[in-house]
Amino acid sequence: MGFGMKVLLVEDDDRIADALIPALLKRNLQVDRASDAASGMAKFAEADLVLLDMGLPDRDGLSLCRAIREVSTVPIVAVTARREESSIVAALGAGVDDYVTKPYSLAVLMARIDAVMRRVGHHANEPVHAVFGFELDAEARQVTAEGEPVLLTRKEFDLLEMLVRANGGLVTREALMQQVWDTAWVGASRTLDVHVATLRAKLGDVAAIETVRGFGYRLPALEEED
Ligand code: CA
What we know:
There is one protein chain. This protein has 226 residues and is α/β, with parallel strands linked by helices. The chain contains 8 helices and 11 strands. It starts with 5 loop residues before the first strand and ends in an 8-residue tail after the last strand.
């Protein structure tokens, strides 16, 4: 999970919040708390992930979730005391990314948070971490694989960062040329091929950059090992 990622905990129960917040902080997450739906609504835009208690004093968690979804794709993990299947279905229908039912174990909750963050990818301003066999720190502009720094040129780094940020999606040759070389000149695209080749050589097995013939490139996340 991204270092310094901010979690908004929307929870009216102080005892639960008091137990949960130190556990989140220990995982190097920043935590903000809202104790009702109104303040959750006011604060979610700052968050990288919302941990949402479904039973809130001023407004149903489901309706808060729908309201957030109208304006944001921020990941939401619902915490529900209701074990009934119908409420879980309703929560998923309202756009939550995952849920845990109370009482939950902290380990399970953390694993769900991690899984959701992996699925949705990371936000633009934080270091991008190991969904791949390497870590790319966008701020420090460093790449490490198996604990060893991988030395990349500026262009190689920019190229790799674009592929990482696409989160497994296709990045077109045009977009790469435009972003990395600031040119749409097709004749320059040989340069792109050369850079992809050197990136592949430098990263080896930790980054399987795929060629999408005629279109561009994509960098699929590694298969998860269970
Ligand atoms: Ca509650």
